[in-house]
Amino acid sequence: MIKYLASLFVLLALLTFGCKGGSSDSPKLAEVNGEVLYLDSFKASLSEDGWENLSPEQKRRYIEDWVNLTLLAQAADEMKLDQDPAVKERMAYAKKKVKANALISQRLHQTRISEDQLFSYFRIHQADFQRPLLAYQIQRIALPDKLSAENVFQQINQGLDFAQAVRRYSTEDLRSKNGTMGFVEPDSADSLFWKAATELDIMEADVLSQNGAWYVFRYTETKDSEYEPSYEDHRAEIKSRIIKEKQNEIYQELLREIKSQNKQIYYY
To answer: Which among 224, 242, 261 is the end of a domain?
Structure first.
């Protein structure tokens, strides 16, 4: 859920500046009443390799969120809510935040994190990474194609009971076991389900493709895994931690630099 909310903040930033100015050579991802989300505009709102690191399901969710937010924003424009003084102030403040984040991101982009830095961080903070990983009890619905999976996923989000959806739609023998795969470990043959589950909250459904097959799945329970995590298992988390620390360092550095060049700062 936290990651989902973070995606909304990215999309709100996109709406702040609009996406009508995207390149005509760039593929269109969506269009709402003449307002277009172009691929290059969307990529610009993410980190350098952010778009490439998104799964097809995450990309679909981002785009759908953009459509929904755009519809709401357009409705607000029709009601002239953007002319309300309080709304204008919040919009101006939001623009400042986006610009400030862009400045920090530009400086951060110049910072390279080496493999030695990652491993040194791991050794220094090794106690943080000795906790066991989780194994996830996966329940899934096998579907014949992407369209069917997205349709069932939407029905579940609208209130269809997951177990009922298994009985009604699943095309595999696991249907007789209520779609339950058992506990999935990070080093198992079904590690793709394990990795996807780490991105979800308990009982939250998602769509996954594996070996050409499509599934709607969720996890219903967790337990400590017997798998002993290594440096490689924590590499992404370590990099994320270092980036957050670098962001704070850059924020402080930029403030010192800019304040030293600006003397006309007054507090009333």
So the answer is: 224
Residue 184 DSSP SS3: strand
Handedness of CA 170, 171, 174, 176 (dihedral sign): positive
DSSP state of 171: -
Give the CATH number of the domain where residue 167 resides.
3.10.50.40
In this prediction, residue 255 carries a pLDDT of 92
Whole-number pLDDT of residue 22: 54
Q: Which domain holds residue 22?
A: 2-109
Banded model confidence at residue 23, pLDDT cuts 50, 70, 90: low
Q: Which of 13, 7, 35 is nearest to 22 (CA)?
A: 35
pLDDT, greater one: 12 or 105: 105
Average pLDDT over residues 157-166: 94
DSSP string, 213-227: EEEEEEEEEEEE-SS
Contact 190, 135 (CB under 8 A): no
User: Does 29 reside within a domain?
Assistant: yes
Instruction: For strands 180-184 and 206-210, give the pairing.
Output: unpaired
